[in-house]
Design a protein that fits this description.
With 77 residues, this protein is mainly β. The chain has 2 helices and 4 strands.
Length: 77
């Protein structure tokens, strides 16, 4: 695995968010769409993760996870 310089790591904005809703994305095998609450400063965001092979949506609701919140958005299929 390639190493990255600390300067690149320091650019990541990693925050803890609470999953308040989660559902399978229709017509996909791996995707779960989550509504994640990051508190008053950031509010809620929709985040899609390819974790449906390992977790069910109901297992995520109410739990907290770290998220990188400054990644460039991209389309998932």
């Amino acid at each position: 695995m390639p190493e990255i310089p600390y300067e690149d790591f320091a650019k990541l904005d990693i925050r803890i968010g609470t999953v308040i809703a989660a559902e399978l994305v229709p017509d996909t095998d791996k995707l779960i769409k989550c509504t994640v609450d990051f508190g008053e400063e950031m509010g809620q965001r929709t985040i899609v993760s390819g974790i449906a092979e390992w977790k069910r949506p109901e297992e995520l609701v109410g739990r907290q996870f770290p998220y990188i919140v400054n990644l460039t958005p991209r389309m998932l299929r």
